[in-house]
């Protein structure tokens, strides 16, 4: 019988002797400060924490995010100033903003009409005439290097049981787009198309799509079907997008304006259209969960391309670490790690509610990134099981006999095992503004979870 | 070591003795006439048959069915007489037609305007004033209890490599519809809606959806994606339908007529919209394969609710057996085997080209019918492996490390093993005209394969 280091077991096996190997690692990698905190948080404080965690799991699992419509951010997003651009990830000063996000912010400034050129736009931000704020601080989440001005139209998702609302921009689609770190005229034009054409028309179609009793669309009911159709609902949202389009079809066809054809071309070519809606839905639930004090479940996780941050319930504090590179990547031709920006975007919050990495076992497309077989994808889901406190009752994995995906990342388990959330994500060019260069699976840095664990331990002391 | 009957192995195992059990069954169930034919067809005739089979596999696997448009059957379906109704399955006289197909035929007669009531319609057929013909005899395939008159609009699918064309009606959708054996005013109205509204508008949208080089849509490219998204592309075509709708979206939105909204409502509510298109595509390939003489691969398989028939290449002969009941069924409330009509429709040809039963391992929805787990669905695919001569290079199974689905059912293997194609299908009410009562997996009757085997043996002698 061998416990721990497999070297010993291998030595015995090499002598043709039977050996039973028990996987065991030193908790928290032997970090004594973390071990001491874990002893308390798993010890006399465990009962209170577990109770709070159970409530967080309940909220993440049972909340029903409803799509109530779209509107300009200035009209609905709380606390949004006049000359403000909101961006992905934790708070950051202009000097530290990475290249793709800089370009996206400048594109958003130009889309607002505050500047004509990227240089003018950058100068306005540098001089403080345009304020930068994290979208997360305004109940809003945005994917990749997204940045939004006050005139941008946003999805409005409402969790009525919890009394929480969340917002997200309209997905900008493939190609020459600001969320991929581009600031070309075409990228600015796309932002204006979303504001002037797509936003108002989608709002009309969504409003007409309420059911007979007047209930809005249940966003996670669509995501749950999409998961049965190969979506992880993060890296791939093709099935969910198509389901949404089919649901909206009669109402899109009822639109009077001939511009509906342009909207149709945009929707038809955008596999990731559902992504932002899923993110707003997830955010409406993490916002509800964040109200539960004394829990060790992560309820915020976002990256701005420079820092990676997590948040715990009952606190506005961000626990930060440098944004990691994206691993397990497949690159476009001529691209590689050396041309890749670090992990970026708010979409990582999907991994907290059972989508993305935790849902890998439901997605042949994700399998392509983590080894090629469904067994590799199942391994990713099982890794997430080890750090999660619950299982989704709506997101089911056919391959695992329809059990739920792991939800609710417990910071104690992350620090204890050293396993961090795996995040299915795109990759942007690090510096030349050429946009997406690939996609892969990012491994969240353990340092910010350790920081969160120690803060929780201090708070409860 | 036990070979064959597991009883002996079980007896030894019951005495706690080790036993290795080799699965072996008497070929063709010990049917001496069939065994003699098999000896010849697997013996000195094997090389010629295998060569013909390889060509059939190549045609079924490599043919590219293109969607070229829609038109009234009278204008495009070859050999269609003026006062003719074409129906599913092998040829049949009115006296032997089962209840749901009778109702559907009467609905088609009324939709043509030849009669006002079901009684009038039935009398016209009975008196021979309306002729019944199998759709299969006119390069056309129709699902469930479908029947079509000359004014019905049909999908036109072309296999340009093979110079073959095939046709299918537009799927009639859920509810009160003739293909489910209903003949109500609503069912007749639906047939007229398909003819007057859906057909012409879909043709306009499909024509506009050709790619930049003017190439029409590749139907099986859509089906292959749908298979990665949980469709078996027979019992479930939800993903393929959504992919088709997303592809057509800009062109649907460009339609001038306000009736496009009605079309949108119909498409939005019809999960099986893609089914008929997949069938026409399959038929364009089996028609090409049927030209290969001396092959033992089944290239026609259809049921009219009374008889189940198969056809071999190089012959127009139908080999018949009674239509079986549909097993592994899930029924609507209050329904069961006693209220179920036998297996019906031309859709079984999908099982010859690697869709439906052979694709079960790709479809969580099918798993629900054959035991509940993906392991059960995999078992169904592996059973089909045993009777198929090839594997699809386009229909891939993620769960089996992306190997292809089994294609090309070899009548020799069917008779040798007693394993027959498993067909994922719907079930209709046996007598009261209330429509669909459930869905399940039908087991093709071995007798018609035996008859085909003996005919092949005679022909080659």
Explain briefly what this protein structure is:
The first copy, chain A, has 461 residues and is of the alpha+beta class. The first copy, chain A, has 15 helices and 18 strands. Chain A has a single domain, classed as v583 domain like (v583 fold), CATH 3.90.1700.
Give a topology summary.
The structure is a homodimer of 461-residue chains.
Chain A (H helix, E strand, L loop, with lengths): L1 E2 L2 H9 L6 E2 L9 H10 L4 H17 L2 E8 H4 L7 E4 L11 H13 L6 H9 L4 E4 L12 E2 L4 E7 L4 E6 L15 H24 L8 E2 H9 L10 H16 L6 H9 L4 H17 L10 E5 L2 E5 L7 E4 L3 E6 L12 E2 L18 H4 L6 H12 L2 E10 L5 E7 L1 H7 L4 E7 L7 E8 L2 H15 L1
Parallel strand pairs in A: 1-2, 4-5
Antiparallel strand pairs in A: 3-7, 3-9, 4-6, 7-8, 10-11, 10-14, 11-12, 13-18, 15-16, 17-18
Helix pairs in contact in A: 2-15, 3-11, 5-6, 5-7, 7-9, 8-9, 14-15
Primary descriptors:
4-stranded antiparallel β-sheet, 20% strand, v583 fold, 38% helix, 461 residues, homodimer
Largest sheet of chain A: 4 strands, antiparallel
User: Kindly state the mean pLDDT of chain A as a whole number?
Assistant: 95
Percentage of residues in strands of chain A: 15-25%
CATH architecture annotation of chain A: Alpha-Beta Complex
Oligomerization state of this entry? homodimer
The first-level CATH class name of chain A: Alpha Beta
Q: Helicity range of the residues of chain A?
A: 25-40%
Side-by-side strand order of the widest sheet of chain A? 8-7-3-9
Total number of β-strand segments of chain A? 18
Kindly report the name of the CATH homologous superfamily of chain A: v583 domain like
The CATH topology of chain A is given as v583 fold
Shape of chain A: globular
**Gyration radius of chain A, rounded:** 22 Å
**Which structural category do the helix and sheet elements of chain A fall into?**
alpha+beta
Number of domains of chain A: 1
Measure the end-to-end span of chain A: 39 Å
């Amino acid at each position: 019988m061998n416990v721990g280091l497999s070297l010993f077991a291998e030595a015995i096996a090499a002598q043709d002797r039977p050996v039973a190997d028990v996987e065991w690692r030193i908790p928290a990698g032997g970090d004594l400060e973390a071990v001491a905190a874990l002893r308390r948080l798993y010890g006399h404080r465990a009962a209170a924490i577990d109770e709070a965690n159970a409530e967080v799991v309940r909220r993440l699992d049972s909340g029903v995010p409803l799509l109530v419509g779209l509107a300009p951010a200035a009209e609905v997003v709380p606390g949004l100033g006049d000359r403000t651009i909101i961006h992905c990830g934790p708070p950051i000063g202009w000097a530290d903003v990475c290249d793709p996000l800089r370009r996206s912010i400048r594109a958003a400034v130009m889309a607002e009409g505050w500047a004509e050129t990227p240089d003018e736009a950058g100068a306005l931000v540098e001089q403080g005439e345009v304020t930068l704020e994290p979208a997360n601080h305004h109940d809003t989440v945005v994917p990749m290097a997204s940045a939004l001005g006050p005139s941008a139209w946003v999805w409005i998702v409402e969790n009525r049981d919890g009394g929480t609302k969340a917002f997200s921009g309209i997905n900008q689609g493939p190609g020459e787009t600001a969320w991929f770190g581009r600031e070309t005229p075409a990228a600015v034009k796309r932002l204006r198309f979303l504001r002037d054409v797509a936003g108002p028309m989608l709002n009309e179609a969504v409003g007409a799509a309420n059911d007979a009793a007047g209930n809005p669309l249940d966003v996670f009911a669509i995501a749950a079907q999409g998961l049965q159709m190969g979506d992880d609902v993060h890296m791939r949202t093709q099935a969910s997008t198509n389901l949404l389009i089919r649901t909206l079809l009669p109402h899109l066809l009822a639109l009077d304006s001939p511009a509906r054809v342009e909207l149709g071309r945009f929707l038809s070519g955008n596999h990731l259209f559902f992504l932002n809606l899923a993110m707003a839905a997830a955010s409406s639930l993490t916002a509800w969960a964040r109200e539960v004090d004394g829990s060790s479940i992560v309820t915020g996780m976002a990256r701005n391309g420079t820092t990676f941050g997590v948040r715990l319930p009952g606190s506005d504090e961000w626990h930060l670490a440098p944004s990691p590179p994206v691993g397990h990547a497949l690159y476009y031709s001529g691209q590689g790690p050396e041309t890749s920006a670090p992990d970026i975007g708010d979409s990582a919050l999907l991994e907290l509610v059972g989508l993305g990495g935790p849902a890998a076992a439901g997605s042949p497309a994700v399998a392509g990134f983590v080894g090629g077989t469904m067994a590799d994808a199942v391994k990713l889901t099982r890794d997430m099981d080890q750090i999660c406190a619950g299982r989704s009752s709506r997101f089911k994995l056919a391959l695992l006999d329809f059990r739920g995906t792991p939800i609710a990342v417990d910071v104690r388990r992350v620090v204890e095992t050293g396993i961090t959330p795996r995040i299915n994500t795109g990759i942007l060019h690090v510096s030349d503004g050429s946009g997406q260069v690939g996609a892969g699976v990012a491994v969240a840095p353990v340092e910010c979870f350790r920081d969160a664990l120690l803060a929780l331990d201090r708070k409860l002391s």
